[in-house]
Design a protein that fits this description.
globular, Rossmann fold, 42% helix, alpha/beta, 315 residues
Length: 315
């Protein structure tokens, strides 16, 4: 892949200058999946000279939260101090088990509802990327259960990378993926595709697959006047969009393949991933309150994909 700065062969220094990440947030619940996410983030941060923030959200059990109104203030404050000390000791132990990191590593503890606390922290820190790994352990064991991770992915204003089991985290170029799948949920209008994320996370000159939502033909609408013209215009727009995207990807040194067919875009994306063994899916997610249908597509892919998914907020 050619460097965007000097237009020569890809190399570390120029890529960092143009597309470097500065702040990476990793919510942790001390589970094995959380450790995997932290290890990935550390390797990625080393490549970009970025700082890492590890965040643990201490969700008080419901029966404990009711105690505040029933005990003396000093007793309650003492309980919280003891709990804070125990959590920070556990956080220190978690960090000690990670590979040595030469950059800045922040450790933070928040208290409250997990997903909203993580999203608020990401906003406050202006995180360039949030890395989460669903534990699937269930409520009461780890706060980063699948549902919490999906709430973060669905509502966070920062890009969210959902790490799934054992991606090929380390290569000569750092923490990167080898065959991504790029999903566009719109076939008739412009959709921001930040190609810089490919350079941040994917090996140079990688093969990649592209899925764009094709035209759907509901039987109840076929007879409507002008519907055939609409389908023709949609097909023309899709062809132009895909052509421009493929051209841009080739200019960046990638080897793209158009895998689009008509039908449900989320289903097509998941079937494409299974058939081509993609190790990363990249999909845009509309901001809060805009285009709920496309937001659902992104959330379905993030929830059901067996591989890592990067959700990029769209304006």
């Amino acid at each position: 892949m050619n460097c965007r700065l000097c237009r020569t062969r890809w190399h570390e220094s120029c890529t960092q200058a143009v597309m470097a990440l500065s702040r990476i947030l990793v919510p942790i619940d001390f589970s094995d999946p959380a450790e995997r996410a932290a290890r990935f983030a550390l390797a990625l941060a080393e490549r970009h000279s970025a700082e890492i923030s590890l965040l643990h959200v201490d969700e008080l059990p419901e029966y404990v939260s009711r105690m505040e109104e029933r005990v003396a203030a000093d007793v309650w404050e003492g309980y919280l101090r003891g709990r804070n000390t125990a959590v920070r000791e556990q956080l220190d132990q978690f960090v000690e088990a990670l590979p040595r990191f030469g950059g800045r590593l922040n450790r933070s503890v928040a208290r409250g509802e997990a997903a909203s606390s993580i999203n608020a922290f990401a906003d406050a820190q202006r995180a360039d990327l949030v890395v989460v790994a669903p534990s699937g352990a269930g409520s009461g064991k780890h706060f980063l259960t699948g549902s919490i991770s999906m709430q973060v992915a669905a509502h966070c204003s920062s890009p969210v990378l959902v790490i799934r089991p054992d991606p090929a985290l380390i290569s000569p170029f750092g923490a990167v993926f080898h065959r991504p799948l790029l999903v566009l949920a719109s076939a008739t209008g412009p959709e921001a595709v930040d190609l810089e994320w490919l350079a941040r996370l994917v090996i140079p000159s990688a093969e990649l697959d592209v899925v764009v939502r094709g035209s759907e033909v509901p039987a109840t609408h076929v007879a409507l006047p002008g519907y055939d013209d609409y389908l023709g215009e949609a097909a023309h727009s899709r062809k132009k969009l895909v052509g421009n995207l493929i051209k841009a990807l080739k200019q960046e040194g990638f080897h793209p393949h158009d895998r689009t067919t008509s039908g449900d875009i989320a289903t097509i994306a998941l079937e494409t991933q299974a058939g081509n063994a993609n190790d990363l899916i990249i999909v845009g997610r509309p901001s809060e309150g805009r285009d709920r249908r496309r937001a659902v597509v992104a959330e379905r892919i993030a929830a059901h994909a067996p591989v890592s998914v990067l959700l990029i907020p769209l304006a």
